[in-house]
Each structure stands twice: as C-alpha cells, then as structure tokens.
Amino acid sequence: MTSDTQFKAWRVEEQDGSHKGAEQTLGLNDLPAGEVLIKVSHSSLNYKDALSASGNKGVTRSFPHTPGIDAAGEVVESATGTPAVGSQVIVTGYDLGMDTDGGFGEYIRVPSAWCVAMPANWDASTAMTYGTAGLTAGLCVQKLLTMGARPEQGNVAVSGASGAVGSVAVELLAKLGFHVVAISGKADHADALKALGAVEVVGRDTLADEKKPMLKPAFANAVDTVGGSPLAELLKQIQPGGSVACCGLVAGPQLQTTVLPFILRGVNLLGVDSVEIPLVEKEAVWKKFSGDWKCSKAEASAKQIGRADLDGALQAFLKGESAGKIVLDHAI
Ligand code: NDP
Questions:
Q1: Is the CB of 206 under 6 A from ligand 1?
Q2: Whose C-alpha in 155, 185, 232, 306 is 20 to 30 A from the C-alpha of 77?
C-alpha cells in the first residue's frame, strides 16, 4: 500500500446543474484525511445514496463526490491502532457518503470512532445485505420492544414494506412472533412479503388520506418507513398505548396531524435515527443480527450488483420501484 495506490470509485460529477455518476480511477490522496483506511469490499444501496447521486444538497453539498453511506471491509491503515490493521469493520452513517467519500469507492478513510468491529463469524458481504436499511429496521424494532411492544397486543403494521428497511422489519418482527401486516404499493410483491413472514399484505390505500380526525384502531404498533400523509393516517389507526417507530420520508417530510392520537389514545411516536447515534447502539444491533435476529430470507434474497449497475439501481429508488436489499460488491 503506497500513496500511489490507485482504486476505482463510482464518482458523481456536477455539470450545468445536473449530476451524473460514472466509474473513475482515483488515488489514495483523493480521499479525505482520517485515522483509518479501509479497503471496502461491499456497500449497500440506500435511498439516501440515490438522493446524493442525484445532487440533493440536503445530503451532499459539494461534488465531485463518491456516494455510499455504508461500507464493510478490511482495515489497511490505522493511526490509532483501534481498529487493528487486518481486522474487518462495518461503517454506517455519520458523514460517510454524504460529504465524506463513501462505500461506492474501493477505499474509504474515516475516523476510528465510526468503525464497528465485525461481529464474530460474520463477513462484509453478509453485513451489507442488512446495511444501513437493516440497521434502521433493527433500531425501529428495538425501540418498539423497549416501549413494551409484545406480539399478544395485536397486529403490527410495516409501511413501505417491500423497501429495504421495510422488508427487514417484516422478517424480523415475524421472527419475533408478531402478526405482521405489510402495507405495500406493489401488489405483485405480496407473495414475497408473505414469504418474509407477513401474515397479511394490504395496499397503500389502507393509509389513504381520510378527512376523519380518528379511525378505528387496526394496529397495536407499527414501523413507518414512509412518513408524510400515510404516517398521519397510520397514527389515527393505532390502538391505545401503541407505538409507531418512524424512520423515513419517501412519501414526504411533512407530518400534518392532530394531537388526538396522542391525547385520546396515548399513542407514542418514536423517532429513529441510524446515523448520528452513539456507536454502541449500532454495535448492539449488529451483534443481534449476527445472532438471534438473523434474517435468513433477507440475506438470501439480497441482490448483488457491480459498480456498472449502480445508475439503474439508484434510479429505481427515486421512482419508488426498488424492492428488497441491493448490495454493491466491488469484486463484480
Ligand atoms: P426504499 O426505496 O427501499 O423503500 C421505500 C418503500 O416505500 C418503497 O419500496 C415503497 O414500498 C414505499 N414507497 C415509495 N414511495 C412511496 C410513496 N410515495 N408513498 C408511500 N410509499 C412509498 O427505501 P428504504 O427502505 O431504504 O428507506 C425508507 C425510508 O427510510 C427512506 O425515506 C430513507 O431515507 C429512510 N431511512 C432513514 C434512516 C434513518 O436513520 N432514519 C436510515 C435508512 C433509511 P411499497 O411499494 O412496498 O409500498
């Protein structure tokens, strides 16, 4: 490893206000300063990567830029000694892939405080079949459990169920014994959602805009990955004392609700952030996925792609057509 070492990265350039990604050859000196140099073998695709690659300035302010908000691979240089050279690590969130070059390049350089040691008997490829989306699903489920959610309370809803976060949430909740109702706009995906463990699959019209301030309670608890008006409708349908873990905004960042679900039914709206939370909270969820929370079906169904396929895969995210987990394998 020398400072002359070159590597491949899927780099997004800005030209006349539009943004285009393509493979480029970079040198290690093109990477930002940092304590740990990692040879990335795998990254996973996330909605936020699609936002970064399409020039969303709320995600990435300056270009050229290498997206990829998560990465896993081997430590090749370590200024602090922890993590050790030769060890495998997982990096998700903080500024990775936002304004710090991310996992769509074969190397990243990051602070040591961003690195989670790979759980025993796990590898980078498996970790990235979960990726940031899986981590987020795990954090949502953990929050519901911490609030006291139990299978015997009744149905648990998952919105955006066919998406990367939703599909892991469906499988994990089903594995933990919950009666999962998957809410999905993809009728042709119903069998796949049932195979993940959903007992029922219903359309997005379940959360269609209703003028009524409250609706009949249909769900004990929920994981909401879409935000916007579907989340407002979901809140109206939660049983007394139930909780909704909210992590996403594909249906919009606005939440127009009344206080009625909160003050009449004691509903809890739980915010979930996977990005800036302390590393120990991420470590705890990774450890569970490598053990009791293993989601075999999500692991088996993840699609592996190479850098040449990134453009199409990211476009699908923006169109709401993406389904399940997609892993970037730099060896493809
Ligand atoms: P995906 O694109 O994989 O999945 C989103 C799913 O939402 C789609 O598959 C679709 O599922 C549904 N959907 C898409 N558009 C709409 C719409 N207009 N209205 C209602 N439903 C829609 O994204 P991810 O699962 O990776 O991420 C989901 C959200 O979570 C994103 O907003 C993302 O930014 C956020 N996120 C947040 C994190 C955090 O730390 N808080 C971390 C990771 C992700 P279906 O067809 O089945 O309805």
A1: no
A2: 306
Give me Rg for the CA atoms of the chain. Answer: 20
Residues 172, 227, single domain; the answer is yes
Residue 4: pLDDT band (50, 70, 90) is confident
Please report, for residues 4, 60, 275, the alpha-carbon distance to residue 27 in angstroms, rounded to integers and kept in the order given: 6, 21, 27
* CA-wise closest residue to 159 among 211, 206, 191: 206
Q: What is the pTM of this model?
A: 0.94
CA 119 to chain centre: 19
* Cis before 261 (ω within 30): no
Phi, psi of 253 (to 5 degrees): -80, -15
Whether residue 124 lies inside any domain: the answer is no
Which of 128, 165, 315 has most ligand 1 atoms within 8 Å of its beta carbon, as the pocket-test mutant? 165
- 72/160 same-domain check: no
Quote the ligand 1 centre to 175 CA distance (angstroms): 21
CA 71 – CA 79 distance, rounded (Å): 19
pLDDT at 148: 97
Residue 89 forms part of a structural domain: yes
State residue 2's pLDDT score.
Answer: 67
Q: How far is the CA of 216 from the centre of ligand 1 (A)?
A: 25
Does residue 287 come out as left (phi exceeding 0), alpha (psi in the -120 to 50 range) or beta? alpha
Tokens describing residue 125: 């490829």
pLDDT in the model for residue 184: 97
**Residue whose CA lies nearest to ligand 1 atom number 7:** 160
The partner residues of 223 in beta bridges, in order of sequence, read: 158, 245
* Mutate-to-test residue for ligand 1 from 45, 47, 202, highest number of ligand atoms within 8 A of CB: 47
Say if ligand 1 is within 6 A of residue 92 CB.
no
Angle at 223 between CA 119 and CA 137, to 5 degrees: 15
Is residue 325 predicted with pLDDT exceeding 90?
Answer: no
Closest ligand 1 atom to Cα of 249: 32
Give the Cα separation of 213 and 200 in Å (integer).
25
CA of 163 to the centre of ligand 1 (A): 6
